[in-house]
Amino acid sequence: MHTLDKFYIDGTWVSPEGTGTMPIKNPASNTQIGTLSMGSAADVDHAVAAAKFAFDSFSMTTKPERLALLRQLLDVTRRRQGDLAAAMTAEMGAPATMSFDVQAESGIGHLVAFIDALEALDEEETLPNGDILSREPIGVVGMITPWNWPINQIALKVIPALATGATCVLKPSEHTPLSANIYAEIVDEAGYPAGVFNLVHGDGPTVGAAITAHPDVAMVSFTGSTRAGVEVSRAAAPGIKRVTLELGGKSANLVFADCDLEKRIAEGVAECFDNTGQSCNAPTRMLVERPVYEKALRLAAMAAEAQKVGDPAKPGDHIGPLFDEIQYDRVQTMIRKGLDEGATLLAGGLGKPEGLEQGWFVRPTIFADVSNDMAIAREEIFGPVLVMIPFDTEDEAIAIANDTEYGLAAYVQTGSAERAARVSRRLRAGVVAINGRGSDYGSPFGGYKKSGIGREGGIFGLEDYLELKVRPPFQA
Ligand code: TXE
After folding, report:
1. Which of 225, 226, 378 has most ligand 1 atoms within 8 Å of its beta carbon, as the pocket-test mutant?
2. Angle at 159 between CA 157 and CA 161, to 5 degrees
3. Is the dihedral of CA 107, 113, 114, 115 positive or negative?
């Protein structure tokens, strides 16, 4: 049993002012594995005061000093990769192998890319007009992260603050506090000055809202639902804070007849089911060119059949459960909607897979003959549910792909380099993957339209945390 009854504030673990608690649950067994103390606005005040005080000196550190600290952070993160992975498996059901190789590894991959980006960043330069431009850390940054990629999201927010000389208050998802606590231990061991990084646990309406509205918080970086993203934007507006948002998606995967169909369909299905479908950039709408549509349905059904679901504590390439009962109910409701809307069920369906009745496991599901105006094609389901839609022309495929309120990612499968470039240019999405290859650590991640504001990762991720200042060249 884990008892998380301390917050990391001002370089030390302190008892919270808040008095509430919440169970920490394992989604595979639906059993309680710990208890989390929930913070209050007073805890946020304490953490922000520490971050504000620390900003005075941390913002004046040199790039070599910050690079040295980041390299220490890298050493400790590498050493604790297994602990991070085990925590995420326990608290949100990421399968052991994937949790280590991808979920926990993201804390290392992003860090290496941020070190490269900081090395390349010009903190001061002379503009063509002779004025001097400097890039300075923005101040205290409030960070609110979700439960689906816990360390990935924490890394994308905390590291650019540490890299630029900003200070921060992190509120991780109340559902994934174990990995967040380990991350705080990592930052502590790396030797950051007190107050540079602070961790306050709690729920969105209490702690999240207090961070967002706090007058001494200069910027809020949020990842989560579009609903909460709107609330964060509203609450931050009176303080004229900078707000970056990474929200939902309903990303299209455009499959053209000239691609390696067997491979691309199998991979497209697996990518949609990865992390049990709980990824903002999951390719959840597969658009298939009509002449190969029937064959694609057969291949997709085979891929769904081959998708193993199982105990996340065991190594292997299976997927685990959804992360909690609310998410399970949401996914069941959407599958029911798909059936009611008249889509053809190609694989999976309602209920739990056989033998996995205890946890929040779902059946990997595919709907065929979907039209893009059905709810299952428009709403983010956040479970292993794929919809397949046929198209006749390239123009039609692009129109369907862009006919969504989101714009995070898009996927293109084609044997033609010209088509890949032509189609990518017309897709209204921040990240385009081609033939199974996505972008690497250090590339900007973020979306168009209701998928968000700003970009995370690498040099563009650093820029979000910087203010620009100009002054003339000195003349006596
Ligand atoms: O998210 P919430 P939920 C989507 C996905 C999922 C749905 C709901 O479709 O099914 O959102 O998930 C904090 N002020 N995504 O309800 O509530 C909250 O405490 C400040 C996509 O779990 O948005 C947590 O730390 N903060 C997404 C974080 O927001 C608030 C990842 C996310 O929780 C707040 C997660 C408020 N008013 C869900 N309300 C992605 N982009 O990948 C909540 N929070």
Report:
1. 225
2. 75
3. positive
Q: How far from the centroid of its chain's Cα atoms is residue 368's Cα?
A: 28
**One-letter amino acid of 102:** V
Average pLDDT, the chain: 98
Q: Is the CB of 231 under 6 A from ligand 1?
A: yes
Q: Whose CA is nearest to atom 4 of ligand 1?
A: 225
pLDDT digits (tens, 9 = 90+) for 128-159: 999 999 999 999 999 999 999 999 999 999 99
Known catalytic residue: 394? no
Q: Is the CB of 144 under 6 A from ligand 1?
A: yes
Superfamily of segment(s) 2-247+451-471:
Aldehyde Dehydrogenase; Chain A, domain 1 (3.40.605.10)
CA of 245 to the centre of ligand 1 (A): 11
Residue 343: per-residue pLDDT: 98
How would residue 211 be classed by pLDDT, with cut points 50, 70 and 90?
Answer: very high
pTM of the model: 0.97
Q: Model confidence over 56-69: pLDDT tens digits? A: 999 999 999 999 99
Question: Alpha-carbon distance 112 to 107, whole Å?
Answer: 9
What is the residue-wise DSSP string for 209-247? HHHHH-TT--EEEEES-HHHHHHHHHHHGGGT-EEEEE-
Under the banding of pLDDT at 50, 70 and 90, the label for residue 18 is: confident
Residue 60 burial (C-beta neighbours within 10 Å; 0-12, 13-18, 19+)? exposed
Q: How far is the CA of 229 from the centre of ligand 1 (A)?
A: 8
Checking if the pLDDT of 12 tops 90, the result is yes
Atom of ligand 1 lying closest to residue 380 CA: 9
Residue of 246, 271, 379, 456 marked active site: 246
CATH for 252-440, options being 3.40.309.10, 3.40.50.720, 3.40.50.970, 3.90.550.10: 3.40.309.10
| Boundaries of every domain in the chain | 2-247+451-471, 252-440
